[in-house]
Structures are given as C-alpha cells and as structure tokens.
Amino acid sequence: MGGQDKLDATIAGRPVLRWAVEAFSAAPEIARVIVVAASDRVIDLREAPWLRALEATVVAGGARRQDSVAAGLQAT
Fold this sequence. Notes:
Distance between the termini: 31 Å
Order of helices and strands: EEHEHHEH
Strand order of the largest sheet: 1-2
Number of strands: 4
Number of helices: 4
Structural class: alpha+beta
Largest sheet: 2 strands, antiparallel
Helix content: 40-55%
Strand content: 15-25%
C-alpha cells in the first residue's frame, strides 16, 4: 500500500473502514460495532462524524493481534 493505511484507502469516495462499519451497522443481527484501532488513531476516529453518527465505539488495540481482540471484547 506504499505506506498508506489500507483503511484510509477510498472506494467510490469513502474510506474502506466506513464501508465496513456502515455494512455491519445496517445488519439487524449486529447490536453494536466496536472499532479497534492503533492507539495513535483512536482520537481521530472517535471524532469522525460518520462514526459518531453510527454510534460505533472506538478502542485502542494492543501490540499483538490477540491483545487487540481482547481490547475489543473488553469493550462489549
């Protein structure tokens, strides 16, 4: 990706992350969406108007994938 965060890449003018979160939020089986992000991205993501409108929770991940999964589960 040439250094670009793949979640910031756009498809049809919207970030990949937005496509994913909106799809999950629209599913009636999904009660809550939790986005686990690198700690240096949490504040910006929490302030993103589209994420706020969807009432998605944003939490910091960990050093390893399993730490990030644990952080997401703790936020439930």
